[in-house]
Amino acid sequence: MAFPQAKEGGRRTCRVVGAAALGLCLTVSAASALAEGAATVVSPPHPPASATGAAPLEGVDLSLSPECRVPGSKLYTLARLAAVKHALKEKRPVRVLSVGSSSSGLGASASYPVRLENALERSLPNVDVQIDSRGLSGEVASGAGDRLRTIVADVEPDLVVWQVGTNDALARVDADAFADALKDTVEWIKSHHIDVVLIDPLFTQSVADDESYNGLVHKVQDVAVAQGVPLVRRYEAMRFLSASADKGTETHMLGRHFRLNDLGLRCMAEHVTRAITLSLLQPDLAAAPTTEPQPKKAEPEKPAGQ
């Protein structure tokens, strides 16, 4: 859908048509400002006011397609993306390496890597985003870590988007060994001044009460927080969408489980793009002022006998 635009003072601005356009308008405007070196933090649209006495409502992110809308707290955690921001300020193409099972794609326009590239270029106007997809079906984190070291040297990306944990969880990989492998690889990528976005495991109702599976989901979240990298909370997003679907009547000819997987894959490109865009709008860390420690004043001597 195209949104009317107008020029004000020589700068392109959005004219919002309806509430659903608000999130996208804010994203586009702020991303344009970022490219000009004036980054600001943009929050998702405010939720509707709740009834008097009722618990406050958390609004879904209206910049997403209607079928993909999830509250921000269930969709992402944000962190700075210094390497991507540097590429934007240099006005050069942003190179993105996509890894994980769904990144293998089929080369068709409906595949996740193509959707991700298109979504990123819509959210970052006048920026050439180049997706290099190197997904491998069934790959676990330890194997991906070894392979990534070779791929990174070949691709030289600004950003690695890594779907991780689903295959490890299904293979019952030890949670601590998984976390160590993930942490080591993320640290290695960051040491080469490359940004990382993690995507945690997918959700189906069959794993909702699986402690081992959920344990690996939490491990991905723990590593993302400890390493200071953005996280796309695919598990929580899909669980939210699954619960929303329970309230409706829409079905899929191959069954509800198939529809949820298909919806999760189609929405993931939007969810990843939203997390990247808002992370880019995080302010740069200001250097903390340094102050010289002041010498302690000598206490006056007390008179004898006191």
Automatic annotation (TrEMBL):
Residues 286-306 are annotated as: Disordered. Residues 294-306 have a biased composition (Basic and acidic residues). Residues 1-30 form the signal peptide. Keywords: Signal. One of its GO terms (molecular function) is phosphatidylcholine lysophospholipase activity. SUPFAM superfamilies: SGNH hydrolase. The keyword Signal applies. Pfam families: NonGDSL (PF25182). InterPro entries: Ester_Hydrolysis_Enzymes (IPR051532), NonGDSL (IPR057572), SGNH_hydro_sf (IPR036514). This is Lysophospholipase L1-like esterase.
